[in-house]
Amino acid sequence: MNRIAACTRTTKETDIAVTINLDGTGKNEIHTGIGFFDHMLDGFARHGLFDLKVEVKGDLEVDCHHTVEDTGIVLGCAVKEALGEKKGIRRYGHMILPMDETLALCAVDLSGRPYLKFRADFKNDKIGDMDTEMIQEFFYAVSYSAMMNIHLNILDGENSHHMAEALFKSFGKALDMATMEEPRLNEAWTTKGSL
């Protein structure tokens, strides 16, 4: 099965191209113009074993908002397209991930119904050049454009960098689990007939 998709989006604020291979090895090339955001997407790709290419030109002279949010939109679109009809996948994924003093929980459902539940109390307003409030906005955008349910929760943590990184890595691992093929199933895992 070829589960690779490329999506683009161009507005007056951003120009974004994303390619994802759900059956990759974690290789990635990421250039958003925001060093910390690149680092987070690298963690997502490596720990989810997704091959990921992200090229972004955004209005960073304004702030990081449009770049981060719009990248979430395009990444979500690419995930949705790569999944196709979602036949034979596990659908649900979860991960409780420790990172030093931090403990993050992520659970996803590739249900076709977007929803984000996000709980993280960051100690800093910014990490590098990225506003911490944009982490929630990123996952909200992914949830709605990929049509997936995402729960992210920092169960314990003090260091904002560790908290953010644990969220992105746990999301990668939970999404990897949800997109894995279930060999006993050759249809969408739902009583409705389609997801």
SSE arrangement:
Blueprint: E1 4-10, E2 14-21, E3 28-31, H1 35-48, E4 51-58, H2 65-83, E5 92-99, E6 102-109, E7 115-119, E8 126-127, E9 130-131, H3 133-146, E10 149-156, H4 160-179
Parallel strand pairs: 3-4, 7-10
Antiparallel strand pairs: 1-2, 2-4, 5-6, 6-10, 8-9
Give a verbal description of the structure.
The protein has 195 residues and is α+β, with helices and mostly antiparallel strands. The protein is built from four helices and ten strands; from the N terminus they run βββαβαβββββαβα. The chain has a four-stranded mixed beta sheet with strand order 1-2-4-3, with helices on one face. A four-stranded mixed beta sheet has the order 5-6-10-7. Strand 8 (126-127) and strand 9 form a beta hairpin. The mean pLDDT is 95.
Question: Can you tag this structure with a few keywords?
Answer:
alpha+beta, four-stranded mixed sheet
Brief rundown of the structure:
With 195 residues, the chain is an alpha+beta fold.
